[in-house]
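Title: [Solved] Alpha/beta fold hydrolase 3D structure

Original question kept below for reference.
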Amino acid sequence: MSWTMRRRAALAGVLLALLPGVAAAAAGAPPGSPDRGPAPRLTWSACGTTPAARAAKVQCATATLPMDYDAPDGAQVRLAVAKVPATNPGHRIGSLFFNLGGPGGPAVDYLQSRGAGLFAGLNDRFDIVGFDPRGVGQSVPAIDCHVDQETEGIYSLPVPTPLDIDVDAYLAKARSYVAACQAHDGAILAHVSTANVARDLDALRAAVGDQRLTYLGYSYGTVLGATYASMFPDRYRAVVLDSAVDAPSYLHAPMQNIADQTAGFEDALDRFLTACAADRAACSGFGGSEPAVAYDDLLAAAERAPIPAAGYAADPRPVTADDIRTATMSLLYAKQLWGYLALALAHAGGGDGALVRAFVDRFYDRRPDGTYAPTLDRYFTITAAEQDYPRDHLGRYLGRGARSWADYPHFWGNSGYAEISYSLWPTHDPDAYRGPFRVPDGAPTALVVNLTHDPATPYPGARHLVRVLGNARLLTVDGDGHGAYGMSSACVNGAAEAYLVSGTLPAAGTVCAQDVAFRAPQPVPAAASDGALADAVAALVPVGAG
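Solution (posted by the thread starter after getting help):
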């Protein structure tokens, strides 16, 4: 469920001419022009919030763009933009734009706090540029439904089953959530489709002086990248789609897309528990030789009596089985986090739910004062604006919920019941891009990257996206987790950087091995009383949820 970076037009033009597969501009507006209207003016100023970011000379600006591109003189959005200037300006190619996923994942905060971060290996040749998409992060207006995410939001608790769901009460909660979003967020909700974000991206590309876009998107960021490449095939030089969402399924078959994702998380849990059985030290001793049995026993015990979490002073509420499943799902996003998941389960098995509670709070983006950041609101409203969910068919959602409970014994809450809110959503973006997702033969070949056991964007979806795009190359990573470049292996990093810098694609059929090991956290944290552990884990994997 998630959980997201130029210049000198003349030099860029020369470099692009040397790259294989770069198409000539199509008739009409030249590649350097934005889609509609003039490029926004960007006035940069220093904005780093940490010593590392200040040393990297992070700069920020605001781009003013039409809320509705069909009414360019009407209401405007103000997009927050940040960049880390290239460290080798004499050999600078241009800008690398990035998106960390979600949808709803911000980019500006990431650069302001970490400098180039994941993209340090590309920062010598590129300015690293991120922006908070419309409705997100520091951009204005920003979506916020002002609800308690744990009791009212899209993934609210408790998670119902076919045995205990009160349909009327659940439907009333879903209607209340939709009404809250509609009441608080107004006109922007009809203009947050991926196509409009792609138009914004095209305007920002022009604003920084790049003739063609260089882009790296993770998770939902691959939908943005595939949309941009399909809408503007003559305006990009290189596009990396990392942890690829099957864009046609995402738009036109979202219930099946989410079911496939849920199956991916069940597979990830099985692989984690198998790894635990093989390496008890890495698993902090959880479950001994039968961690799969111990996991289900822990859930059953928490169902009978929630586990105390007094050691987590920020939020000492006892931990339920739903909480354990939520924490598990969030920590299966990256193999780097398996050791933390094992430790949290070991603590919970010993009667201390503090670590689980800390990770649940991180998932819901709970603030110190007990309110919630609107991360999940943005995920829901942006996807709802363009996905083709069935309308007025409550029975389909109840049936899917019952089937998910039978098919996905740990994570059924991701598929079916939670999707009822989509059936009620009244606001859709008329300018959404419906496809086809296709890269013409004359355009640069897109590079699609995926791990074989990615729980959030399963590998078969990446293979299907490559087939649909046509002019695309798949780079396979044999391993676990969500997000490859900068987080998985030197092989992936080298292949992606060769492509982004010089246009060199990896050979067809290339498979990279994952370098990430399963190990216990060092040093082993005793508790999460100040939230530092959850913050440290969040820093490991900045990729958005879906």
